[in-house]
Amino acid sequence: xxxxKPDILWSPHHPDRYxxxxxxxxxxRIGPVGSAETKAGTLPLSEETAATLLxxxxxxxxxxxxxxxxxxxxxxxxxxxxANGRVVLTSLGQSHNSTCKELVGKExxxxxxxxxxxxxxxxxxxxxxxxxxxxxRADFSVLIWDISSKFAPETSVAAEKIRLSSVxxxxxxxxxxxxxxxxxxxxxxxxxxxxxxxxxxxxxxxRNLAIFDLRNTSQKTxxxxxxxxxxxxxxxxxxxxxxFFEGQVAIWDLRKFEKPVLxxxxxxxxxxxxxxxxxxxxxxxxxTRDSNIIRLYDMQHTPTPIGDETEPTxxxxxxxxxxxxxxxxxxxxxxxxxxxxVSAANRVMTDFTVFERISLAWSSTTSLVWACGRHLxxxxxxxxxxxxxxxxxxxxxxxxxxxxxxxxxxxxxVWRNHLLAGGNDQCAEDMELxxxxxxxxxxxxxxxxxxxxxxxxxxxxxxxxxxxxxxxxPRYHSEERCLALRLCxxxxxGPDIDVETFLRSLEQEQxxxxxxxxxxxxxxxxxxxxILNKGATAEKGDLNxxxxxxxxxxxxxxxxxxxxEMCSSLRLQLKNPYxxxxxxxxxxxxxxxxxxxxxxxxxxxxRVAFACMFLSDAQLPRYIDKLTNEMKEAxxxxxxxxxxxxxxGVDLMESYVDRTGDVQTASxxxxxxxxxxxxxxxxVQSWIENYRNLLDAWRFWHKRAEFDIHRGKLDPSxxxxxxxxxxxxxxxxxxxxxxxxxxHQGRGFSQYGVSGSPTKxxxxxxxxxxxxxxxxxxxxxxxxxxxSNCPGTGKSDEKVGLTRENKLAQxxxxxxxxxNCRHGGHAGHMLNWFRDHTECPVSACTCKCMQLDTxxxxxxxxxx
Length: 864
Prior knowledge:
Helix content: 25-40%
Organism: Amphiprion percula
Subcellular location: Lysosome membrane
Strand order of the largest sheet: 1-2-3-5-4
InterPro entries: MIOS/Sea4, MIOS_a-sol, WD40/YVTN_repeat-like_dom_sf, WD40_repeat_dom_sf, WD40_rpt, Zn_ribbon_mio
Strand content: 15-25%
Number of strands: 36
Family: Belongs to the WD repeat mio family.
CATH architecture of the domain at 1-151 and 173-224: 7 Propeller
GO molecular function, one term: zinc ion binding
CATH topology of the domain at 1-151 and 173-224: Methylamine Dehydrogenase, Chain H
């Protein structure tokens, strides 16, 4: 290899030794830095490893290729191919084995001198050594030598004696008669023995890849191609071979040898080496000339149907073991993804490990797993309490628990869904008011659109109730504002604005502060004081409420009073926001209620109701618009009260989903929107489909079906057309559709007893062509005959089948058949048969029908 780039060979039986092949052979031992094995003057390969030079062999000049003997004994035996075609056996070890002494120095000489390009030891019969030579018109290019043979020159071969005498060698160590001669009048550039059969040799000839069989050397299997260099067999898949030509790599399947199964991306520079990773399945490394990177091709195989010609998926990436140009590399035979590279210029060696790609996977039950190489890791918290609290907070866990409790399916009392979601109040009950509206335009609109259409607003001045002060407070009334108050839950239906019912409900919920604030906003200060006193004396009540009531009782409307000054300065120290806005209201000027309207801790519905009562027509729309934008930016679902189920509501819901990931709530809410405007929005469709996929991932197939039914009721356009029907084997028409078109007949499968019709109509022929329907393999009755009419079914069975569920859908009467053997019958009969049997009920049929159904073994998680 003088003048050429170096090469590396790992020892097949010593995982810590390798040979650098250059103008001479150097044997190195690799070990950790600072160990007893590494001495002073060692060569550092990485931060953890270093190499120690053990031996040098410079007895074989003009090296072109080297191959390491594959067996343990003799140790460190190498075959060296030279420029003149000779193959010399040499050693780098101090072995005293007699076999090694006999082999070292042995030469195998071809008839005509020419360059030896490649060598390959037989992995099973290790006495066989294949050599690939350049072309000679009167000689073979593939010679297979038997290293155990001895040369005994005959006296009649005078020319052979003269040729051997021209070199000063002992004739007893020279072999000139190869065991096999292959590839006449051709050149061999690369060789490898096939691992699936030690008698097969794959050779990269001048213009083709050829497979030679030593049992019949007169014939060969070949394919014409330019990719004839560097042939190498995948150690994990013995029928897969890689070869290259210039910058292109071809992957071959020996079972289908007509053409490459895969051609990798062509590189701009010629390739110098390709090598399969011995520890990793399907990982191929390639090196181009004058390059400092190694390209890796990871071939991922996915199961495909039989006969489907699909190429394997290739994941390509590059690694850079060192800064300088790489002369050669070699995979470590046992350490996973480890290689040693040697630079082309100064022969610097580097120990490098190719890190695996890390694949993450979330399970549908909130488990995190990642794979790296051959290892699979599960993410586990240090403390069990920590992971349980995290799982409980996870939105996927919440959605799963809600789905199990039929969250979102109660369309009569909508507020119950709020309780299923873990809420403790009934604020969502007010949604019913929308659904019961008289005007179609108002059903889906929010307060934002309602107040914009407000007209005929009347301003009234009302005095305080229960106070000696006669100050008038301006308030505003209109039909739209009353509707907004009803949507906020403050008043009930009717012409009068009476909040007493609302106050009683708040007292029952023990929301004393909120009830007092609502009473105060309705200018009933005595009622507010009464509520606070009641809250202070209640069980688990706050005694400080008496102090607040006492402060309220001293209310005065004088602007310069000490009471107003102290309330303005001390109200922010109150912890409860409703107590804070009560004093903010009392100390504010008419029309300037920012202390109430912009208190973010107060519920949106209460702030909106307050605004509808005390803001003018000019102030109210501006405040509602500003509050709506805040709700949309924050993704606060309370803003649905303002936006309604409109386009603005979709924008708000988008922010909510981006913040929480709760596609479940988004799907159910948007299903109640206007079908024309909201449900056709691609964002809404995406949320609905994602939620359906989640239910499928959790194996909540029944819940998913219920959701689809619920969706079909609210959005008729989402109902899918019939996709599966039973057709006649003779005329091809749909049996169910044909029957539904006939007069005086039931629809669908009802005439076959599927719907549990009490008449049990019996149709055993195709309505289109009148040909008989197939017979059940077990009862031998024509399909269409109800199970209860079949022989062997007594009256007791018939009575059992009259339950409500069976009347709705008698699955036992459905058509069912195996897609493999085409045998079948009534579904009930088939299920009973396969409870006790594995093979098809038809005699002489060995099909295991039920085992072919992979989904039949899965049990829905919601089947309880």
